[in-house]
Design brief:
Pdz3 Domain; alpha/beta; Rossmann fold; six-stranded antiparallel sheet; 20% strand; 16 helices; disordered N terminus; globular; 15 strands; seven-stranded mixed sheet; 409 residues
């Protein structure tokens, strides 16, 4: 039990790192040698070409993708601006290159592809897709963000595939290192043994002091990170090399830490295809306050008359998307967990900032149904709460042995 909890915590920490806006790593002198020591700025809502520092449009990026195999897009998983950008990019790519395949970090390689294809063909509802891929069994992250991009792929008639390996494998690596995998399991992670000191340094920076104070712990976390990078790179590379993928363009959507400075997925992709032509795009958060001007009255006064910017190393990617300093969570996490007891779901934990907390759910609540649909599992509760609707869900439950309906709070 203790080991299971420990491994779960390790996996949660990796996801937590993927959610963090990486302001302190944006300026690291990494990436292509000719650009890594150049610092540039970006305003919120703008896209900057890191080579020139000039603003570009989505249409220009789509045009330049004519000479590329894959466009690799980094994201903050809970950023509305990131997903709106991805939606528009997918539309632009689909309009120019009808044979574009979109690969998603949150779907599994191979396992989820048939369900994705069926949904894109118009077979079944969104709920059927989410049940088939076990979305809410794997995460409490609201599907609403990915929905924006999936809808664009469907409208454009594009294909979508899963990129990731089963989380159980990566958890094993996070708990025991690569030696925890069998030979056949390890073969899923192409080139995972290839070392990249710059990448290791970058991931150390992401995790901060803990990476240095707990070396064995970080070794396992880093091995898990490289497994993710390796399998996602190989998934899209193998698809494009196969007969059905010949002549297609690829778009990869994954956490920003998998893309930044070309050290994660891009590096692993090029190990499988040395002459691959990639375009990389990552988000950079605009600073709410110009910290450099705080101690200088003249600079502070000048800063008031200039728009806030994010600062980054030009080696971070080919293009940078500027994000607002703060974003309202369009789709709050469905952070609720519990267990089934006599065919009733009993709430054991409710996250502080998620949708379940906003709806007033509490520990000990016995939930019978949402909008008249029976709650048969933790994943089903999350799914029902996260469905698209114009009004709050109708929740029927028991609290302190008394029935409660509609007005949960």
């Amino acid at each position: 039990m203790i080991r299971m909890r420990f491994v779960t915590v390790l996996a949660a920490l990796i996801l937590f790192a993927a959610l963090l806006p990486a302001d302190h790593t944006d300026t690291l002198p990494l990436g292509p040698e000719g650009r890594r020591l150049m610092l540039r700025t970006v305003e919120a809502g703008r896209i900057v070409d890191t080579r020139t520092g000039k603003e570009v449009t989505l249409a220009e990026i789509a045009d330049r993708a004519a000479g590329a195999d894959v466009v690799v897009v980094g994201e903050y998983h809970d950023s509305p601006a990131c997903h709106a950008f991805q939606r528009d990019l997918v539309r632009a790519m689909g309009a120019k290159y009808p044979r574009t395949v979109v690969g998603f970090e949150f779907f599994l390689q191979g396992t989820d592809d048939s369900a994705l294809a069926a949904w894109l063909r118009g077979e079944g509802a969104e709920a059927d897709l989410l049940r088939a891929v076990g979305w809410y069994e794997k995460t409490s992250m609201h599907y609403g963000y990915t929905r924006m991009v999936m809808a664009a792929a469907k409208e454009a008639g594009l294909e979508a595939i899963g990129l990731n390996a089963p989380r159980s494998l990566v958890r094993r690596v996070a708990g025991g290192g690569l030696k925890a995998l069998s030979r056949s399991e390890r073969s899923r992670f192409a080139h995972v043994d290839r070392k990249n000191p710059r990448h290791r340094h970058f991931i150390q920076q992401v995790f901060g002091a803990a990476a240095l104070r707990l070396p064995p712990w970080f070794d396992r976390i880093y091995a898990a990170q490289t497994c993710w990078d390796s399998v996602m790179a190989a998934s899209i590379c193998n698809y494009l090399a196969a007969r059905k993928g010949k002549g297609s363009k690829g778009v990869i959507i994954a956490g920003a830490a998998h893309v930044a400075h070309g050290l994660g997925i891009p590096f692993r992709y090029r190990l499988g295809k040395r002459r691959a032509k990639l375009i990389t795009i990552v988000p950079v958060r605009v600073a709410a306050v110009d910290e450099g001007a705080e101690g200088h009255p003249m600079l502070k006064m000048m800063a008031k008359n200039m728009p806030p910017v994010g600062v980054f190393s030009a080696g971070i990617a080919d293009y940078v998307l500027g994000l607002p300093a703060e974003e309202e969570k369009m789709f709050p996490a469905l952070d609720v967990s519990g267990y089934m007891e006599e065919d009733v779901f009993v709430v054991d934990k409710v996250g502080e900032d998620g949708l379940p907390a906003r709806l007033g759910l509490r520990k000990g609540d016995r939930i019978m149904s949402v909008d008249g649909n029976p709650v048969t599992s933790q994943a089903e509760l999350r799914l029902l709460l996260g469905m698209q609707r114009d009004t709050p869900p109708r929740i029927r439950l028991e609290r302190d042995l008394k029935p409660v309906e509609d007005e949960v709070k």
